[in-house]
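Why predict the complex rather than its parts? Because the way molecules touch one another can change local conformation, and only a joint prediction can capture that. The input here totals 626 residues.
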Amino acid sequence: MTAPLLDIKDLQLGVALGQSIHPLLKSVSFQIMPGEAYGLVGESGSGKSVTSLAVMGLLKKPLAVSSGKILFKGQDLLALPKREMRRLRGNRVAMIFQEPMTALNPLSTVGRQIAEMFVLHQGKSWREAKKLAVEALSNVRVPNPDRRAKSYPHQMSGGLRQRVMIAMALACNPDLLIADEPTTALDVTVQAEVLRLIKELCAERGTAVLFISHDLGVIASICQRVGVMYAGCLVEENETRALFDTPRHDYTRGLLGALPRLGSRSQHGRQRLVDIDSIIADRSKLTDTRFIAPRGTEGSQP
Amino acid sequence: MTPPLLQVDDLHVRFPISGGGLLGKGRRMLHAVNGISFSLAKGECLSIVGESGCGKSTTALSILGLQEPTEGTIRYRGQPLAGPGAPGRMQRAKAVQMVFQDPYASLNPRQSVRSSLAAPLRLHGVTAGSEIEGRIEAMLKNVGLTPEHATRYPHEFSGGQRQRIGIARALILEPEIVVLDEPVSALDVSIRAQIINLLLDLQEKLGLSYLMISHDLSVVEHMSDRVLVMYFGQIVEEGGWRAIFETPAHPYTRRLIAAIPDPNAALSPPAKEDRHTADRPQLAAHSFVSDGSRAPDVFTAPPSSKLVEIALNHKVRLAATLSD
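Output of the joint prediction:
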């Protein structure tokens, strides 16, 4: 069996409040195999974004990891010196953020921002890097990449900006791409295009994906395995198909029933949506049970 | 025949774009809404779907009286709501109210729930303290809050509770029409279900008519009686929810539906294809002015086209030359 690309072991992190630490993640463990797309789903505050920030080494005070390991290709990222981490970040592990407007530098052309990746991580000259940046833009199917490289972020639509983010993230062919709600701010048809793009490019290059979303539909269309987070815990993990067909945790069942599904009204008539609180007697007890399915021998690999 | 509750006829909204030549010569006009007509019946939920910039919010603002139409009429029970002879804001407020998308931004942080709800009542001549209290109490119960919540401020509530307050504020004057502008898109998944259930309950209980603006098609399918699909200021398809979702005719409608990340479809793609090809009205590709894959020029009036009825109450926009 191949070694996992990312192996998060018993990660706990919290907000430091004076002497005490208020826990945000209570022991989260999961693995991502090379080339695998793994989805983390959960509501606001469930801890999915801090998990990704911890992997990127971007936690800021007062957030701090209190225990656990984040092994990337066997190397513990938490023990890595800052300098080393900086070399890894953007190079081997890259991230796409939710808001493409705030994540891009408004004062610099997108071509220059992408070129920077090649200069910083691959030691290219600016001249060469700019050519590569145009190529990167055409890879994410931006029309007129030559001209677009000279545009500033504000001159682009949300969908184009998100493509620029993807081009930047994939510039150095990372082993792991973290996508934190990358399509939440986009229109549905643009969302569909961006999702397809992420899926195709990552499959082409064998890039593993950690995809974070609150939208189960988005997760299903891109991920092979899914982890459901609630209140800082991974309460259920399974292969996507199995999770949707036979959710085992009350919370997962609630999440799946809470959303109107396309086509269900024509098949079954209008049914009252599941109120999560009505099937869960005590939210504080939710994290007591966890269902983590063992990794299957088939299907988990792309 | 009694006029419909709300009747919109040939609504146009154009915005002048700054710039252009001297003395406004050559000033360009942005065609936001291009001749929209529809009616809303009592107790009905009509949804307008489309992407950002398609004109759905401008249409709603016109109905609320917040955006003067460039052309066209909007009638409420046969009386004009905009243009000459239109009632003032006070009367309009009793007819149409709005629930906003973001419950964090739409409530005044310095007003308690009580004063948020009491202000419109006082403005509309309800002065007796006991009546105000009574109505606020009843309304809070209606939206699933308790009378004790009245003394609190918005920051003390969760997102779902805030949206309940937003709904209470919209309903306190007992309007007949409520415009729902993406009422659940800012809410967490588990809260969405509660608010959708609440809106449907209130509609039934109070006989409300909803005009819902949304780009979340699964919510639209769940809640609507009829659906209008808008694309660059025009209605490209109109019909009952079943017609729109089971037999969509316009390529843009199909594209919108196909774009929804639907777990069922993602995990078993063939099933979805069956559903959409099943007795779909067959129209040649060239009969459409645009298939929605390329953005038209918003600075010129759209090419002539017509809404043609292809089945009972199911209309689709076709190029004018073909429909004649």
